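Please review this one.

:::
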Amino acid sequence: MQVEQEPKYGVNENGKLVNRVSGEPIPDDEPVFILRARDVHAAIIIRDYAMYCADDEHREVVLGRWADFRRFAADHPDRMKEPDTEIEEPPTGIDPHLGHTNWPNCDTEGCGPDN
């Protein structure tokens, strides 16, 4: 994985994701969530995530990635797409309504951030 593609993490000789600076691998039991620039929702999620970053330096780095994702979308509109991963059943403890396109305003009983 090239640094330009993912500046914080890389893959070591054992195929493990590692922090490029510290060399610390991500443990096998720690979930990882990857957003791709072609995902039509990714840029807005990254922008929103940046708003929660208390550390100014980290927030600036995240906003830089937000700019990268927006640039990709502008340069490659033909490659942008709605995510399409299908799962048979939501993992235990996950609200099955989170995938609704109108969440958090879903009118399905029990759906939304207050339920």
User: Anything to note?
Assistant: The chain has two domains: 1-34, 36-82.
